[in-house]
Structure formats: structure tokens, C-alpha cells
Amino acid sequence: MLRPDGRLSLDIDPDERSPQDACGVFGVWAPGEDVSQLTYYGLFALQHRGQESAGIAVSNGRRIMVFKDMGLVAQVFDEATLSSLKGRLAVGHTRYSTTGASIWHNAQPTFRATANGGLALAHNGNLTNTHELEAWLAELNPAEHVPEKKTMDSTNDTSLVTALLVSVSDDLEKAALDVLPRLKGAFCLTFMTETTLFAARDPQGIRPLVLGRLDSGWVVASETAALDIVGASFVREVEPGEFIAIDEAGLRAQRFAPADPKGCLFEYVYLARPDTTIAGQGVHATRVEIGRQLAREHPVDADLVIPVPESGTPSAIGYAQESRLPYGQGLVKNSYVGRTFIQPSQTIRQLGIRLKLNPLREVIAGKRLVVVDDSIVRGNTQRALVRMLREAGAKEVHVRISSPPVQWPCFYGIDFATRAELIAPGLTVEEVCRSIGADTLGYVSLEGLTASTHIPAGQLCRACFDGSYPVAIPPGQAELLHLEDS
């Protein structure tokens, strides 16, 4: 399976990759600070949320300058580029595509000229009612939908929001309060004019967004880790259904919709950085507790607990603590294997997971291993991993997963497979175990995972595990669910 742009990534086989979140967003209003440098470091802290493209928009109070390109943050920006982006406020973005092809036109922030200046916008999430919004845009501004423009402009839902904001009203704050209530799905937005920074979060708060304070200004970011990196103090989360504006007059906040919290449960399992805090819960501590719960639910007589680095590490620590089994590093991760645009040869492609992980033979040979990973999506990674561990001399391989079986696709910004591509639907745990070649397999229960977060189940989106979607899925997407086979 090829990427949307027809190229393969160095993940070797797209079926081997881990689940990917849509994007990371960052915004800063800080006159007197080097806002492009702050945004650069903020995006570095959010690189895990998107590795396909990166961009920064900066305003000096009179005009907005945008620089963006394909690649990692460090590949897109150098010192000369950042030095040319002088200003008092900025928004930044790291992207992993879930809608729209992986091409330069879809890199963010987007930019549009308005009657009063410019608008630059960055988006994390995925809208579920784009057909409805496109129809509205066609009524407001038919020129936006001519075929020639569709071939020239970006194809993602971010450009659609940008076009709506500039079409509804010349007053951007008024336009936002008209547009935001009509957006459905997951969205965290940071956007700006020449003088004002804005932020908004969907009424369900599916993706995280936080507000921080600098000595001379304000920061909004997808995760608290980005605040830490730039030296901002955490103030609070941007509330679900909240719209924020920051300018010379200070910070103004108002609601565009009632809050109906449904934070993504998978953020706690995998997506967020372990040094991030979401809804008052430290992600690292939560993952350690998930590991303890996993050990209580699925104990095993073994010699050593090892993680699949890096995302399996906290839960492996918790599993070892609860089970009183030794913890060790049995796999070494190559930190320099990321999502690049190198097209691997067939020989390299066959190496698969070995480019990313290599066993420490002297640690695992002759051992009965408990191998802790964050999730099983298609099963290809675990199948290759179990085979590699056995070849390295492992006596037994007991796989433990710190999330329940992934049963349903995500429509809110995680690039899961369609239901037909997932391994769990239609198979028992024993059948999945045989498929990946493990001696035993245990998933943490949905109830156990939820309890580990200390967040009430009614305030979490758990759709990828239980199929209960808090926001209506996009029209025409039922084939991804294969409801007729359910």
C-alpha cells in the first residue's frame, strides 16, 4: 500500500507503522520575544505528532510571513530561515496527513488574504462534516469551488476552514463565532491575523490543547511538553467548545458551544509524549499504572519483562513492578529511523522491523520473556518482533498489550486502518496469539485502561475500542466499518 503521494516511507511497509496522530499545533503572542525561535522549539516538542511537513507563520504587526516545507522540523528550518521570520506573534504546525495528500500544498499553516489583511491557520484533528461545510462554502463563495482552483489549492479540511473564515465575514472574530459551531469532529485550531492570535477546541475536546504564560506573552500548544520546552508556565487547558483571542488588549475567552468532554483515550496509551499532562493526569504515570493493571489481569511465569521501545517502556515498568519480575532492555531502538521520503529497495524492505529494533541477544537468550507493547493494529509488527526474538534465543515470548484490541477505525485524527485491515475484529485473542506466533497474549481490559486514567468513562472517546463514536461519522464512510459484517 502506497502513501497518498505514491511514495513509500522508510517505515518499510506502511502496514508496519504505528498509529499516527494528525498534527501538532503551536501558537505564541509575545512582543519582544523571538517568536520564530520559540515556535521552532515548540514544534520540536510536538514532532511526534507529525513528521511529514512543518511550517511557521509569523507576523510583525503589519504583514504575515509563512515558511513551510515537507520533512521534519530540523529539515525544514535553518538558522537563516528563522532569522528572516521576525515578528511578535506566530503559529506553527507539524503534520501527519489523515485528509489530503502528503504534498507541499497541504502543509500548514494555511494562508489566505482577507479584506483586512491576512489569515494563517494550523489545525490538529479531523472534521467529519466536510461535505456539509463544502456546500455552505459554495453558497457563501462559489468561486472557491471552481475545478481550476480545486487543482491548485490544498485538499484537506484545514483549507476548508480557512476558506470559510475569510468568506463569512471581514471581522475574523465574528467569522470564527459563526464557523466554529458548525464544525463537527475533532479540531484544535491556532490561527492569527497580523495583530491577534486565536485558538479554539472542539466541544468534545477530543484532542488536547493547552494555554501557557510567558513573562511577556502567551502560548497555546497541543501538549504541555511544548510549554516546558519554551519556558512557559502551564495555565490551564483550552476548554472544549472554547474560543480564545490574544492581542494588545490581553486574553479574551468565550464559548462557542457547550462543553461535552470526550477526550481521546488513545492519547494516554500512545499518542501523547510521556512528559505531557492531559486533564490533570501525567501521561507517564498513567502508562505505568496501565502496566500494573495489565500484570494484575494477565500474570505469567517468566524471567524478564522487556518493553518495545519507546512507547511500551512505561507500561513495561509498571508490569515489572506489579509482577515483581526483573525489568530489562532487550531491544535497542534506532532513533534515526523516522518517516522520510527515501524509497527503499526490495532488499531493504525485507529487513522490515530490523531497521528500527534489534535484540540484545545476551540479555534475552534462554529467557522466558514478557514483551510489553502499546497496541496491536494489523499484527505485522508483533509477528516480525516475535520471530526476531525467537531467532535471538528467547525461550518463550509472552506478549502483553497496554490497550484493548483495536476494533474500529478512527474518524477524529488517528490514521488507523479500515476495520477490514485490523487484526482484532473477527478473531479471538487466542487466534491473534497464534497469528503473531506468541506463546501467550494478553490485552488490558477497556475497564482497566479507563480506570488507570482516573477519567470517567463518559468523558472519554473510546471508539477505536468499543465502536461508540461521540460525533457522527462522515457520510458514506460506513464501508470502513463493514457494518454489514458486524
Automatic annotation (TrEMBL):
Q: Source organism's superkingdom?
A: Bacteria
Entry annotation: catalytic residues: 23 (nucleophile)
Which family does the UniProt entry place this protein in?
Answer: In the C-terminal section; belongs to the purine/pyrimidine phosphoribosyltransferase family.
Q: Which UniProt keywords apply?
A: 4Fe-4S, Glutamine amidotransferase, Glycosyltransferase, Iron, Iron-sulfur, Magnesium, Metal-binding, Purine biosynthesis, Transferase
Cofactor, how bound (note): Binds 1 Mg(2+) ion per subunit. Binds 1 [4Fe-4S] cluster per subunit.
Binding positions for [4Fe-4S] cluster per the UniProt entry = 264, 410, 461, 464
Residue ranges annotated for the Glutamine amidotransferase type-2 domain, each copy included: 23-249
Q: Which HAMAP family match?
A: PurF
Q: Which SUPFAM superfamilies match?
A: N-terminal nucleophile aminohydrolases (Ntn hydrolases) (SSF56235), PRTase-like (SSF53271)
The record describes the protein's role as: Catalyzes the formation of phosphoribosylamine from phosphoribosylpyrophosphate (PRPP) and glutamine.
Pathway(s) it belongs to: Purine metabolism; IMP biosynthesis via de novo pathway; N(1)-(5-phospho-D-ribosyl)glycinamide from 5-phospho-alpha-D-ribose 1-diphosphate: step 1/2
Is this entry keyworded ATP-binding? Answer: no
* Cofactor(s) needed for function: Mg(2+); [4Fe-4S] cluster
Q: Which Gene3D superfamilies match?
A: 3.40.50.2020, Glutamine Phosphoribosylpyrophosphate, subunit 1, domain 1
Q: Name one Pfam family in it.
A: Pribosyltran
Q: What is this protein called?
A: Amidophosphoribosyltransferase
| One Gene Ontology biological process | 'de novo' IMP biosynthetic process
Molecular-function annotations in GO: 4 iron, 4 sulfur cluster binding; amidophosphoribosyltransferase activity; magnesium ion binding
